[in-house]
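Model it.
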Amino acid sequence: MADWLKDTIFKSKEMKGLYPHEKAGNDGEYVKDSYEHHWGKKIEGLKARMERGESVAHMMAVLRTSPHLITAYNRVGGHIAKQKLSGFTETHDGKSMSRLGMTEGRYVVMPNFDPLVNIKRMTNDFRNIVELGAGPGWNLFDIGIYLGKHKLTKRFLFGLEYSDAGVEIINMLGEHEKMPIKGYQFDYTKPDISMIPDNGPTLFYSHLSIEQVEDISRDLYNQLAKRKHPTKLIHVEPIGWQRYPDIVAARMKNDDDFFKALITNRLTDLDAPHAGVMNAAINSWRVKYNRNTMSHIQHFEKAGKLRIDYAHYDFTHNNNVNAANPCSYIEMTFNPDQKSPVKAVKAAAPKTTKKPASKRTKTKTSGKTKTTRAKKFNIIKSSTKKKT
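Modeled.
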């Protein structure tokens, strides 16, 4: 018998007569009633969507955004989470960015933030939704399914993509599904967003596309800053390490010796807050991933042309499980003195002229920034601002 079991049996003799604080539970009827209440509230809404001709895929996407939770308080789980998550304090919209998980019988800390789900929920406030570096458009089509046919009549989706094949797939599937989605060629090093109508609130986002371009052009941000209607940009990219000036300077000089030294240190710093930063920087150096996006963001923020609304650095999520290349989520508003996005109205069809080939793009940035000072490196501090 294992020692921990022997110890438990021995201690069990001391437990007699004590109040069973940890004992709780509900019968089958309570569980059934909780589901009846939760799903029952959805039935009329689903019927209305069916009458509008919405697809089952859309209705399932809507249901997935409001999962059922039995809210009975679990004292055991609560105490364990409090202890294991004691050093993980960042929140977003009142929710913890970390959660308790388990693997191989051991409790572990897991990320509790999905940037693509967050972007999807924001699309209700915008007339135009644009993905930079869209690939074959899977994220955009997922957003289209989430919005549904009724809401899509008031919006238009754009996939800006470097590869000809990706653009062709977006346009082919968009026409096949009769969805208001259009693909255009795009190059992060020679950006052109003139095909995106400036006729209402517009959301631009990138997800793991900027990473593949070592140096993107600052002109992308110049063009975004010149738009007359409210414009938001979100980057979900492995660029969190770029807030450390010393590492950026070494990366811009391609200082091989600096990164070799960084490699020798990373295994001894696995539990440090900057462990993800070190690995992401090493990865950028090894495969020539992006090194200059944060400098553009900082430039436009300093000039007052953009506001960082929220930033969450160095994490993995469902669509990026590579802990050696962690994402950072940066959500920004250009020309923050403009009015906030209003209810979208029917969008005009985009121009149909084909744009010259360009390089793939992805960008994300957002605001309420909470940074910690990592040892060994200087770190750029960001001001904490409320999300608007």
